[in-house]
Every structure is written in structure tokens, then in C-alpha cells.
Amino acid sequence: MAYKIKIILTDENGNDYVGEVALSALPRKAKGKIVKTKPTQTTKAVKTPLDFDLDIRAFMKKIGARHFSGPVKITALIAHLSKGDTNALVKAADARKQWLKMKSMLGKFNTFYFTPAKENAWIHPVAPASYKIRKEGLEILQRKT
Questions:
Q1: Distance between CA atoms of 14 and 71, rounded to whole angstroms?
Q2: Number of structural domains found in the chain
Q3: Does pLDDT of 95 surpass 70?
């Protein structure tokens, strides 16, 4: 049986690093002696600034939106369309239009994606079919990248 351990380290500049290591039982010799093996380790920087100056397709590819859930994808679209401005209004029709242009990357569009994004406080409905990105939405995208 193998176990995974995840370590998050924050340096003095506020940069976060995450490492993940797979742990498994050490093989034993016939008389119960342990054979030592070399540990494996992977690390990568967690914090990368969200670059809203990128083209929308490049932005979505850079943050790895292909692997996100639908509500996180719609949050990312609204964040990019508003350029990260929490006061900018984005129409649902504009988000849908952009999604359909990137269907090969994002998959099938579903209007239901707005509901969990609202429930998780990632987006805020301000008018019928219009949304603003919330600070929490930007934070979830930051954590996912």
C-alpha cells in the first residue's frame, strides 16, 4: 500500500511551494531486515500571478482550465472578461459566447455552472444574467494554478 504526503512551504517572501511524495512500505529481507530505498520528490511553485493581459485562450491554457470543474471554468472566464476587476460587470451571454469559442478546451457549456459558482461565492449576480468576479473567485483560481 502506498501513501502520499503533501507539504506546503512558505518562504520569507510569501511564495508558496508544494511538494508531494509517495510513501510505500520498505521491502524486507527474509530475516526481517529493512532494505533502504532512495526517496522520490517533486516540487513546484504554487503561486503564479494571474495574467489578465493574455489572450483569453492563452490565459485559460496557462491556468490549466481544461482540468477544472465547470463552475471553476466559468469563474475563470468571468475573471478574464472582467480583467480581474471585482467591480466590472460581465454578462452571462458574453461568458457563454467566449466558452463556445473555446469548446475544444473547455467542453460542453452548461448554464448550471453559474449556480455552484454563485453558491461558493466565486461570482456575484448583480443584475439578471450579469455577474461580477469576487475576491474569493480570484483566490480559487490562484490556488488552482
A1: 28
A2: 2
A3: yes
